[in-house]
Write a structure and sequence with these properties.
about 15% strand; 8 strands; alpha/beta; two-stranded antiparallel sheet; about 260 residues
Length: about 260
Amino acid sequence: ERNVLKGVNLLLQRGERVGLVGPNGAGKTTFLRVLLGELPPDAGNVVIGKNTKVAYYDQTRAALDPEQTVYEAASPRGDDWVELGDQRVALRDYLDDLLFPVPMQRMKVKALSGGERNRLLLARLFLEGANVLVLDEPTNDLDIVTLNILEGLLLNFTGSVLLVTHDRYFLDKVATSILAFEGEGKVTRYEGNFAMYRRLKEQQQAKLAQAAPAPAAKKAEPAPSDTKAARKPGKLSYKDQRELDGMEATIEAAE
């Protein structure tokens, strides 16, 4: 009965980390389901690269076998060595870096806390050999330690990332661009992290406010020529001052 996505275009390139933001129900999860092939689009096309391999981490979390050891659960194929980008690393060293020391690697999954299980799921996600990660609310219920580890893993990941989260601080750390779901099917892309998105959005809203018709009560104001004559020499107009104030952010966005 309603459009959640309308005329949306996205080209995801290697190395990009795109944060998806917007209110609940705006279409973020629907968008991911269309990209993953779980939901056919009513119109348009989804084109997957020839060598693209996608790993999906959703809100419900994949199940872990409680009877396996941490070491076994981390690598279901039983590999003792793992590929991380262009590096070959021993699985035990990789797990140790993620705060699973060797004695803990011999523990059963059922003995882990909730935070440790989430960390183990993330550890396994980065061993799937994917070059595109799709993460739907991965920061929910994560402790600070696991959040810091996830941040480091994403920053060192050489592939592309699509990330849905309400954690603005996390987006400021990892996102290279923002895909804003603004309702009524409208989706807009902004380059930069969440702080840059918020700044550009505020500038956009200020421009719209300037372009809006003046209220009827203001019709009695002096004509533009009179205002200009009354202005002190060398003083910028309100419009010029607003443009000057926003110029630094505009240059950063262009760069």
